[in-house]
Amino acid sequence: MTERTLRAAAAIAGVADSASPTGVLDLHGRALEVAMVREALADAGLTIDDVDGVCYGGMPPGIAEYLGIHPRFVDGTMTGGSSYEIHVEHAAAAIAAGLCEVVVGVYAATPRGDRGRKNGGGRPGPMPGPNPMFEWEMPYGLRMPMGAYALAASRHMAEYGTTSEQLAQIAVDTRRWASLNPRARYREPITIDDVLASPMQASPLHLLDCCLVTDGAGAFVMTSAARARDLAKAPVLVLGAATCTDHSMISAMHDLATTAGTISGPAAFKQAGVTPDEVDLLMGYDSFTITALLHLEDLGFCAKGEGGAFVEDGKLGPGGALPMNTNGGGLSYTHPGQYGMFLLVEAVRQLRGECGPRQVPEPAIAVAHGSGGVLSTMATIVLGTEATQ
Amino acid sequence: MSALLEPPPSDEAAPFWDATRRAELVLPWCAACDRPFWYPRAACPRCLGDDIEWRSASGEGVVYAASVQHLPGPGRDAADGPYVVVLVDLAEGVRVVGNVHDCAPDDVHVGMRVRAIWHPLSDGRKLLQFAPQE
User: Fold this and answer.
1) A93, A138, A336, B122: which sits with the fewest CB atoms below 10 Å from its CB?
2) B73 is a domain residue
3) Which tens digits make up the pLDDT trace of B21-53?
């Protein structure tokens, strides 16, 4: 079998996202989704008539109908927060194979605004019916999802000596980035002591180890690399993409200190032909501080067990050696429930040089690494500028 | 545990739940692999074989991971205060979820040796729980 690769076959041509310092957005449901699609298409210099593919974490026909299109490629992959990285992977494959030319992916959720709303935000709730989680986990009162991540943190600490101070450093550096983003939910600088003094939620995780609950939405537009070169913005090439699902329930995760990122990360890097030390920006899903620390190890930015020492010098923050989550992350920017879309949007904007005060100097390669469920499904997307082709 | 959320029993786990009524811990074993698996399901998660035997387990295990819940999780009451949720590696080689009783939640740690105890449910079944080994 010949070696197949998606490297630089497709590009992200347009992006959009929406978030607010109040945590609440005016729009919700389909109206918010359509606004994001419209904005991402305008960013790309395309119109809805160009779109022949749709990615949506759930049932794509509903949004396709609402947009008034008849896509010949649909992907409804739903793995939680990493869904949107997987959508990019599948869209790149579909474009490379000639199944379609222009794919739009969209996500919106408004858990904060929905609190005062009668009919919810327009996304279906969890599946009803028999579920192993109800039978084998829920009776024990584990707070979800933070309890699952707390168990992983407890294991990482016991196995590798990782400390609460080291985890807190990630929250501190992420907040430093958020202070440079006027749309971030929280911008006031915090210290390690602030994190440790915030209320314990599920030990060893404090409140400031945990992501936000905010409204938020975003979209991307993808097309072939060739077509993207004729559009409004410089194309951001999909250089590598890979996924791995490890488990669904946290009690079914074999090694709580090692994620499926050890599979998806190296596979995506290999496809892209890059190594971790060539990465200029890591957008690593930070549902909790421990989540981001696990990504650093599992993607190979440092050795297994050394994540705590790796982050201690503040290298993840502004001016540091490995800028991570420059929009302020799920910890300080926005987290509507499935944050993966925002990883992609920020990576694209950074590679285009559009990020103003928080701009990383001339980045060429960015990684968007999504984590879905309870450390369940990892998806790694390596993105690059034209120069990396 | 005044507001305990009681687990809905699946058909595949009926032998497990029946045994709990006698305060007995049994695990599903794949006859082909001659190994136990967890959680109970229609086929062995290694070979998909459906020749499943139920064998008694020692009830002894080691805490694999632990987290103290400082605010009440599903089905719990704030009045009960913080409680610890653990993953326990049973001696037979499967990992289960539990709470640890008979000691302070913060004293529970990774590597701690525990033994099975049972908490009564409203329908006569019992919920697997743990206590420190003497």
Assistant:
1) B122
2) yes
3) 999 999 999 999 999 999 998 888 888 888 999
